[in-house]
Design goal:
Helix content is 34%, strand content 23%. It is α/β, with parallel strands linked by helices. The longest helix is centred in the C-terminal third of the chain and has 15 residues.
Length: 139
């Protein structure tokens, strides 16, 4: 594990859910969602967390799919729905027209892993990164 990150909801600044309180899964189920493409770690972390909580997966609502965090946040800002996004991505692409909101219950946290294939030769930048990660995790 290299780091961890929280999955949050991105809502348009004027949206009724942007009031600052936590959102229930039932209320979220009645809201159109903007989500990353199938296979996205963010999407998988979100759906796995809902399943682990014993809440039904959200399948009956309208989903808009975007293949990048930038596209997801643009769709949220345009009012296409509420986005499911990493808190890092939301901070990195800080926008005045999008706010972070959290689901009720424990935060949805995902771990980020460093995975190496045995025998691969890494370039200088990748080698330096791996060394820094190993120093950090071993220390």
């Amino acid at each position: 594990v290299v780091a961890s990150d929280e999955i949050v909801l991105a809502v348009p600044a004027g949206h009724e859910l942007a009031g600052g309180g936590r959102v229930s899964v039932a209320r979220l189920a009645a809201t159109p969602l903007v989500e990353r493409e199938e296979g996205s770690g963010t999407r998988r972390s979100f759906t796995d967390a809902l399943a682990a909580r014993g809440t039904p997966l959200i399948t009956d609502q309208r989903w808009t799919i975007r293949n990048s965090n930038e596209g997801l946040l643009e769709a949220v800002a345009n009012g296409d729905g509420v986005g499911v996004v990493s808190s890092w991505a939301l901070e990195r692409h800080a926008r005045d027209d999008v706010r972070a909101v959290r689901l009720e219950g424990e935060p949805i946290v995902r771990c980020l892993y460093l995975v190496l294939r045995l025998g691969d030769t890494l370039g200088p930048a990748a080698t330096t990164f791996v060394e820094l990660v190993r120093e950090r995790t071993e220390g």
